[in-house]
Design goal:
Low-confidence stretches: none
Shape: globular
Number of strands: 21
Largest sheet: 12 strands, parallel
Structural class: mainly beta
Amino acid sequence: TVEAGSQVKMDTGLRQLTVNGTLSVTGTSSEPVLFTSVMDDSEGGDTNNDGNATSPAEQDWREIFVTSGASADLEHTLLRYGGALRGSPYWDYLGNLFNEGGVLSLDHVTSTQGVRGVRSNGGTLEVSNSLLSSNSQDGLHAMNGTLKVVNSTIQQNGQYGLYTDGVSSPVVTNTAFLSNTSYAMYLYLPGNSPSP
């Protein structure tokens, strides 16, 4: 359990938090939990003690990685500056959060300034009351598995707001897509051609 008000600053490079069991992040509206780069001085001060010599940027760290069979429940949580390139078998930029066949639930989560806000490959992903914003690629990228997005905002991302491939029945309700560079939603449904 990561308790309300906690701040987790990841060192640069291939740092990540891997979830093999159960992760509960219990932030509150008045005391959110923060996951960010060690170079992010905007919260918690100058953790790496270098004054203003460095600044945070996307890919400073990898992601919170939810493995197959694991689960993570994040509430009132802010994630910044993740998405460093992954090697085999992915060879891709995964995002601040990556669900690899587990169960990932986000409520009042802001995922921003990474490569992708959230990436999911199978399993279950539920996003509610959340903001996926200002990521250099997609706000949310989901392949296979199940997806539900409600009461959220996906905005100002460098490619798609929402990209799906192989998600048979994605559910998206009461969610705003604003100023994403490419399509708001790109749904590649099983047995069908891509549909913007």
